[in-house]
Amino acid sequence: MTTDGRYRWLVFGCAAGAIMSCTGEINQPDSTNVILQAPPRVGFEKVADAMQPSCGTLDCHGQVGRNLRLYGARGLRMSAMETSAEGVTQPPEYDATYAAVLALEPEMLDTVVRQGGAQPERLTLVRKGRGTERHKGGSLMIPNDHLDRCIVEWIKGNIPVDACQAAAMITAPGWATP
Amino acid sequence: MCAFPLSLSCFAIVLRMWPPLPARSMLVTSRLVTVFWIPPIMVAIGGLSTCGLLPDPLHDAEVAVLGPEDPAVPQGPLHRPGQPCAVCHGPYDDDAPSFPMAGTVYRDPVEKIPVADVVVAFVDSAGKTFTTTTNCAGNFYVKANEFSPKPPTWVSVQTTAMPFPFKMESPIHREASCAKCHFDPEGPSSAGHIFVADDPTTFASIALRACLPADGVVR
Fold first, then answer.
1. What is the mean pLDDT of residues A132-147?
2. Could you give the CA distance from residue B153 to residue A84 in angstroms, rounded to a whole number?
3. Which residues of A touch B127 (CB under 8 A)?
């Protein structure tokens, strides 16, 4: 058999194999909707306020171009009538921030929530916030500091109000707490 | 399941389509050599890009938006007030000195009246502080060898007419240009330009002065 003939059979054989391996039954996913579990929306305002100064500033996740887009009174606003210089965070902004956090990794979040919040570092939100995964913004929280506790406990279904409020009021070293 | 035989088919077709070479050993060797050269070439291209030897269309577009220099103002500390300084004075432009922080300060939230001699004070997350003052164009800048803040960084502005500093409520995490977030008009993604007072009764007490030769001198 000539070299050309061998190549021809090789191509034909691989194409046939590809076609045959693609035939047959394709397992369709279950057609019923799967409801993913998520941390609570009730009380999320405290978590959003905690994330705002560390994560949601205009130069970070308070920008429309970010994968995780956070809204807040001193960051990105939803309404064209609002500005980043004044006002308070509005309910639709809290809703949008909640949706944004959930939409990051809905399946993994579901897994973590179903397991009681165990191993929260499986979530990119936690790894990047802690700086254990490459993050342009660096490390914004240390395990068990105020912001970390606020987020991790919220994922478990609790809202540690004191930790979240402390994280929301971070200020410069040496400055009085506002 | 389909990927492996399909990709093998494609690879075989590509092999078959390559021009014939005199001997099978040379055929294999030349194609292996070609494959081995691809990663170093890609690394070299990446290196050229990082070194600024290749054009960066995104950065070029950012610079173009700023427009030309004002012919009445020489390039220096007085130029381009209110513009995002670090677009040029940042890591992507080797022609201009890099500033970890720079911006412009005005008198009030409405009028763009620059104020000289405003004390701009920075505190970083490690507690390190640095202060500088604005020139007659309202511009201030921080040189990299003066202060390299560990983010987040907090900032305040104060004039001699004010008994207390105006503190920025939220910290700065990664942006060196104040004007990236503080631009006009105020809006859903902008806090408006930086000002030292928002009480009209104090405006008159804020001294405005003409430019002195020292204002245009590079520190």
1. 95
2. 18
3. 173-174
Residue among B109, B125, B170 whose CB faces A53 most closely: B170
The beta-strand segments (E) located in chain B are: 101-106, 119-124, 129-133, 139-142, 153-158, 166-167, 194-195
How many angstroms separate the CA atoms of A93 and A49, rounded? 11
Pick the residue from chain A with its C-alpha nearest to B6.
A18
- With beta carbons less than 8 A apart as the criterion, state whether B95 and B185 touch: no
**Averaged pLDDT for residues A109-122:** 97
| Helix orientation angle between B3-17 and A3-22, rounded to the nearest 10 degrees | 160
Cis status, amide bond into B185, omega within 30 of 0: yes
Q: What is the ipTM of this complex?
A: 0.78
CB contact under 8 A, A175 and B167: yes
Q: Would you place residue B54 in the very low, low, confident or very high pLDDT band (cuts 50, 70, 90)?
A: confident
Q: Between B96 and A143, where is the model more confident?
A: A143
d(CA B195, CA A54): 23
CB atoms B174 and A178 under 8 Å = no
Taking one residue from A and the other from B, the number of pairs with CB-CB distance under 8 angstroms is: 109
| Closest residue to A15, CB basis, from B9, B109, B169 | B9
Does B1 have pLDDT greater than 50? no
* Range with the poorest average pLDDT among A65-79, A97-111, B18-32: B18-32
pLDDT band of residue B2 (cuts 50, 70, 90) is very low
B123/A60 CB distance under 8 A: no
Name the residue with higher pLDDT: A178 or A173: A173
- Within 8 A of A58 by CB-CB distance, chain B residues are 170, 175, 180-181, 189-191
Q: What is the per-residue pLDDT across B193-215, written as a single tens digit (0 to 9) for each? A: 999 998 898 888 898 999 999 99
Query: Looking at residue A22, what is its pLDDT?
Result: 66
- Which letter, b or e, does each residue of B22-58 get, where b requires 16 or more Cβ atoms within 10 Å of its Cβ? eeeeeeeeeeeeeeeeeeeeeeeeeeeeeeeeeeeee
Q: What residue spans of chain B are helical by DSSP H?
A: 3-17, 24-50, 57-65, 200-203
What does DSSP say about strands B153-158 and B129-133: parallel, antiparallel, or unpaired? unpaired
CB A59 within 8 A of CB A70: no
Interchain contact, B173 vs A171, CB within 8 Å: no
